[in-house]
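Shipment paperwork, digital attachment
Item: protein structure file
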Amino acid sequence: MTALMEKPPTSSPWMAHSARIVNIRAEVPSVATYDLSFDDPSIASSYRFAPGQFNMLYMPGFGESAISISSDPSQRKFLSHTIRVAGNVTQAIARQNVDDRLAVRGPFGSSWPVESCRGQDVVFACGGIGLAPLRPAIYEVMNHREDYGRVILLYGARTPSGLLYTSEYDAWRAKDVEIEVTVDIGEAGWTGHVGVVPLLFYQHRLQADRTTVMSCGPEIMMRFVVFEALARKIRPENIYVSMERNMSCAMGFCGHCQIGPYFVCKDGPVFDYRQAEPFFNLEDF
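Attachment content:
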């Protein structure tokens, strides 16, 4: 697993810091991206995160929720989280406006192996809102594009209107990212693929000995992404999945996210397939 970004020595993982909402972008139905700016300049200047890590976002009176960071790690002006309305906390956040405030605790968790796979081909395979946790890794690779081989994004959603970040695809392609998009159900005017994300592997010939796969999305999708990667002889240690579920404290104390010997909040959410394999096909994985 990749190392965590070092926190400032005076920062407590229990300390939540006030942040202002500087922008809200509606992405798809029930999903929006919130750009946050810390009120304390010292926190703003010292905060660092690695692609794949998450924050705990706190709303007074409602509690806190684990939300993946979705912004470019090299961009220091604000911190972005793409949030789907799914419970009391996210509903409360969805009622906020620009200039309202919430509290941020973090960053937490493991990260995508963007450093260790330099010199490799990289395949990002994701579905629905699973693109949000991978977006920082995509930006990190684009920021150092000369250090990587082929970069392929395989992405799917239920319908075309459910695809995230569509306005950014041209800029990603300009950085030599090969993008294949699919939907479960087409709509009028849709001319792209119809089907599930794992089938997009058939569109590309991969070099198994130099390919790293990173996947995030519905668990059933990730299972078949792993199956397709293994079928192409990609090594299990070069296949990474994000097992984001049931994270409550972010410190491994409450036990809600325990899977076997691991606590997803601190040992994950990013695992390589060697770690995840014993638990990957469990119904309550």
